[in-house]
């Protein structure tokens, strides 16, 4: 089926998320929609899928204008979507998830689960998925969950398939696997829209490329274009893809983690015997696919995990068993992975957020009373120093953009006397300008002689910042390797293959 | 590169399992130890001697069982030993990182209860009627069970139903008026159903359509319905009590044969229609939630409304539907007060039963069958006081009346364990 | 293992409703404001509560006035439909419709006139002091409402829903009362202070128990405080029925002896008025809570935990301690309400209904007051006026004071749903930029039809 979007305009009040976007996807083609985080790609696809209603423009399928009142209509018309955040009910089985919304029933309104199971098996067999229809979705690895999403779309006979940032949660190998599936679907005649901001994937799989910036189509590119060409088209200016840094000057002080084991509330061992050292003046990047224990590792460092064994010493002092407060007082700066949930109080002002982890004593608090004058002066200094763009220090943090929110967190954590700096996903959901700024500050902290641990699931970021890279897989350390290790070796390590085997496989 | 080749290559890491250990908490063992200690203290501090007379049948029964007379002090102490043993087992299991099985807690509860009854009934010349104890429990549990079912249905769809109290009270009022006017208990029941749904409609309007915090709407609705029914009671019902507030009640309908089974017969099968309906409602709600399209969609909306939306399910409509059904079911419980228990409405006559039903929902971990059993437990505790006052219990009535609430406190603090409410429970669904 | 990717809305970087990148270039702050409450973390009651309150607090005064008006209209309808004269006149409505309307006007107008006469100023009074007496009655009724409302509001701000006002008031009243009539030989100011402290401490401990259970075992405070209400009720009933504890000597009624003068709150405006120094204590509590919430380190921690407990924990704030201590303070404030009842409001001896529903009224006061101390003061006085006027209305016009409960709860409901009030009064929507609304409504219609 041929998909055409004609002059789609979607506004959120004064904000134009999609500005007269035109797009044609032919059957049997993979059409890449390339754009930065927040360029308006997802909004466009939500319009296509009936989740948003566009103010202007038409959606045409085989040259017929469609009216979608909701996702139900879009699905009925043959559009299927693999969502960036899987639209699966975690406590349901695979079969239940696949049948949801178009259930077959037997007498008395009973669900016909057998029919759903058969359908899952049939589609699984066609693509070699090996998905158990009776497995509960939340127990499945993310890669398999994504296959369930694909089965869901195919079970409704979708002719147009939209993949919204599908590779964010996958290892490089799983990504290759997904590409193969997409090609197979294309060869069966499906029209495929592939949304991404990763240049490498685009060039590998796309038949056509449309680039979106600030809600507008800024051009088409051929799959043979270079990374630099695509990047400048996407961002609107030449982008520095690397971080400049000198060779590290190592010091004696530092962090030493020995045999660390973290168990979560459900009894799963999420960090399994991890040991490493970071010296002052060095960046250790922790790479790996999301959900392999990196989050829990950083939380254990700051004292947030309850069930921890092993040892964490900072400059010789044991941190395991101490409260968060006392670990912070030891000079640990911490940028949590999820800033809106863990890093900031959205309803608090910028000034209040900047003192959030120092509300227990001088200089912000004296004799139990807040020192408002000091707090405000401090806040004004910090928003100038860290280039936080806001109306003023009294603006609630929840109203700032992602990049400015992150700068508030980084400003707070870097304005104490640091002896260790831990940053988890420091640039996730942050605009390009802020990414460069935050990277520079992290390197400056390292150059000041502080040991730095950066967790990133973006391999590019890990490589750019790291002096050494530690790869985690299923809670274990696969290996600690130099920053100049080839990407394909790192990719194999992210799938749990030891550095030696990975090197062997790459050279073979 | 064929897809098949890739798949086989990748399946190995995906199917690898992560190491897990079983985590246990000392909460259960702690609660058991506390109760055992309190029980032993009671036996030591206030010793009772004499016999306890357990009555197992009623005079009208087909099969007559003689009164069982047991020496109370030894029996109470035997039970104490059982309690201690169970506590010890629980402690050992916890130390070995294993969970205390539910059946052990059941054994414990039974022993604690038997021991307590033996102690309370010691030396009394009157018989302690087990049929009265259990049959009354079933009867008293009616509003709790229906209320809890209503709570479960609402919460599984993502709407916290704190307004159970309002649904019970509103339904009790409406059932009283309609049953009085029509001289028909069944008409009263139907009206109760509608009244419960009407309260739900208001809950839905504010909680679903206007995204007002569901706990707040629920609490305020409870106050609103107390005010409304009390106002109408004194303005309308009191002046014409003869016509508007003297209801026709359901009478007990013994089921042939089944009602002649010793003990269980009179407990379960000599009850009014509303109770038989309850026996059917519990499995029916379970079936509807777990085995039908209606239930699947309802649960999807309560767990992950956006996922449901993206497969074309109308979240708002599904939630309204669930909340209305929930209100209607809770309304049946409200009818109990004016068509079974009493023949007239009284101001605020539900007296917080809705909150107990809410506790039963949590106690029952959002499962209709478990919640119904929790409701039965609370019914039992409420009835215990009545039975013991007949025997001449040494425990002040206020403490007996306190039991369901203390049990709930212990339950939420220790015994329930890790339970997971529906993920989107309490979340208004904002589309887009 | 639950995977974060699959659970709803755990996406950290992106607002689910908007693309932030575009927002960056355009008017980002306004766009953020327009996203409204987004259910991010399903497990997190605290944040949800905070958001709900935010919603209540940010509604403009027009909505508040509209809500009060709507509630009063609803009350009028109830009065009109149940009034005997109206009923009588409506039987011959088609013959003389005028009579019905006259009766209607008399019933509704009479009721609200009585409400005004009983709560603000009595224009039929012979002298100024008597004329102003209703106002002092209003403030008397407002005293425990303000104190208890502050207790609920403070807990709200710390992310806790304190439904335990009834229980906290009962134990506080019992403790204050017991020190009042149980301890003798202590001179006036000291005896009063002791009784007050006992009441406040008892309320604090009863609420603190709920806080402790929540912090230690994760038991939900809504359930725990409700259960503690009943436990307190039966406990106090037992004390009241037991000679030597709270029961008045020589009596078999479940009632206490009167509070001796040495433990009574002295009248504020002389013996002619019921208003006591308790009102001044309530005002001091308002200022104290304002300082605590906005100027103290402890209040900063309470608010941080209330708005975002996870971020507070990451920032080194001991959330368990904040939960327990905020419940202690909240219970102390409700305890002040309980103590002021037995030491000022009802000094002739009390029974187990001494809480007079204030524990639950306090929730509506806190909600109407947007959980801010000054808002609670205003809401407390408004509801005090309803109570004072309600009893006059019942006495003079025979309208049951239960109608006050209805009007109060309707006010809170309407205030919590500004779009509804705006729709009824056709007020402009301040969130105009939510342009898709019309489209959405159209879509809903379509779906309903489908």
What key phrases describe this protein's structure?
heterotrimer; A: 508 residues; alpha/beta; Rossmann fold; 2 domains; 6-stranded mixed sheet; C: 450 residues; mainly alpha; globular; disordered C terminus; cell membrane (chain B); transmembrane (chain B); transport (chain B); sugar transport (chain B); Simple sugar transport system permease protein (chain B)
Protein model, in words:
The complex is a heterotrimer of chains A (508), B (432) and C (450). Chain A is built from 18 helices and 24 strands. Chain A is an alpha/beta fold. Chain A folds into 2 domains: 233 residues, P-loop containing nucleotide triphosphate hydrolases (Rossmann fold, 3-Layer(aba) Sandwich); 254 residues, P-loop containing nucleotide triphosphate hydrolases (Rossmann fold, 3-Layer(aba) Sandwich). Chain A has a 6-stranded mixed β-sheet, with helices on both faces. In chain A, strand 21, helix 15 and strand 22 form a beta-alpha-beta unit. In chain A, helix 14 runs parallel beside helix 15 and helix 17 packs across helix 18. Chain A is globular and about 70 Å long. Chain A starts with a strand and ends with a helix. The relative contact order of chain A is 0.10. Chain B has 432 residues and is mainly alpha-helical. Chain B is built from 18 helices and 5 strands. In chain B, helix 6 runs parallel beside helix 12, helix 6 packs across helix 16 and helix 16 crosses helix 17. The relative contact order of chain B is 0.15. With 450 residues, chain C is an all-alpha fold. Chain C folds into 2 domains: 126 residues, no CATH class; 232 residues, no CATH class. Helices cover 70% and strands 0% of the residues of chain C. Chain C contains 19 helices and no strands. In chain C, helix 7 crosses helix 16, helix 8 crosses helix 15 and helix 11 packs antiparallel against helix 16. The longest helix of chain C is centred in the N-terminal third of the chain and has 30 residues. Chains A and C meet through strand 2, helix 1, helix 10, helix 11 and strand 20 of A and helix 1, helix 2, helix 12, helix 13 and helix 19 of C.
